[in-house]
Design goal:
- Pfam families: Xan_ur_permease.
- The chain is mostly helical and 459 residues long.
- It has one domain.
- The chain is 64% helix and 3% strand.
- Helix 8 packs antiparallel against helix 18.
- The protein starts with a helix and ends in a 5-residue tail after the last helix.
Length: 459
Amino acid sequence: MGLSDTLAARFDVESHGSDVRTELVAGLTTFLAMSYIIVVNPAILSEAIQIEGYGQGEVFQMIAIATILSAAIGTAVMALYANRPFGLAPGLGLNAFFAYTVVLGLGIPWQTALAAVFVEGVVFMALTAVGAREYVIRLFPEPVKRSVGAGIGLFLLFIGLQELQVVVNDEATLVALGNVFANPWAILGVLGLVFTFVLWARNVTGAIIVGVLTTAIAGWALTLGGFFARGAVTPETLPSAQYDITPLAGAFLSGLSGIDPLTFVLVVFTFFFVDFFDTAGTLIGVSQFGDFLDDDGDLPDMDKPLMADAVGTTFGAVLGTSTVTTYIESSTGVEEGGRTGLTALVVAALFLASLAVIPVVAAIPAYASFIALIVVGVMMLQGLVEVDWSEPAWAVSAGLTVTVMPFAYSIADGLAAGIVAYPLIKLAIGEGRDVALGQYVIAALLAAYYVLSTAGYIL
């Protein structure tokens, strides 16, 4: 039996209506679609993670390595255990929550934040093993399940526009359009974004990573050609290759000590809350795009993909990165015909191979990296077509899920708004019996949490 036959038998490819060649092509497609995270995740986390004795460029490379390894581990578990064609990596939105809300916003040390991610990852593995996590996710109202992907997309779109300095702070209106064409940073970002959208619209494989790299090359060409001074649209200095991640890997251990127990519990709970609903939303969102959901909007055998992201999250925290989750870009591989874990195994192998380009990632300007957020955000808005806007409970629940995420700068807050709204509107129109008891319980718990948190009693 040859390698092809062995792989086909191991992943039961034929019964899933696929073949080995299709799975290999699908894996390559998914990797190219999501490989931008190798650059974008360090760009976000390096704003919050500072290691004494190391420059930002060196820390950037450490986080890039942690990103690659955690993605490879999580995706390998998805392949070999769950047999699903989903790629995993540190999640966009979750890394923003880690950096901007927990570390920079609340002032929590980054080591403690990693420790909190580790603890909640272990808790998630335990809950997934007994089926509790899948049970709760199945209680999500269907309009929330159908709209969460679009909500996450709008949130990422907003972050990307801010980072490109297209949207800026405004004292009167909170946000406003920036002076785009008086700002070289924004000009290059917008032109790179247009180029990337053109590639994506023409179904070019790997459109996002091609757009990011092309924009970065353009910035460097203009700098080296004397149009801009070094540091204007490119990094001022480039660090030497950094493959030693020991200052980052294992740093979560120091975060487990020297902190007030109550504070740590609250941080873990906050991560647990955000990760639970965010990961569930992303998994449902990517399954929605891949047409893996059943008639009730649920993913069959959901416990296995959930275990893969729980394992990925735990190992990711050990290595030094934020929560690992399923990527919406996995739908690109599914569209190419990927149906089994062999697709995911190819993605994991390609992530490991990308370790060879680590010295290059520090040279990519941030405006090029954040193009990916805007393109992915637009892609994810497609999920709104599955919402029944003529039904009041659907319209209110889905509408709040989508809009509260960017307005509150929190994926979890948007999910909570949709979950709480659904039973309230159902009761208002006399259809309260259509709501499951568990949905009432979750809505009540969330309402209580937000009353206490917004009153200042808990984080």
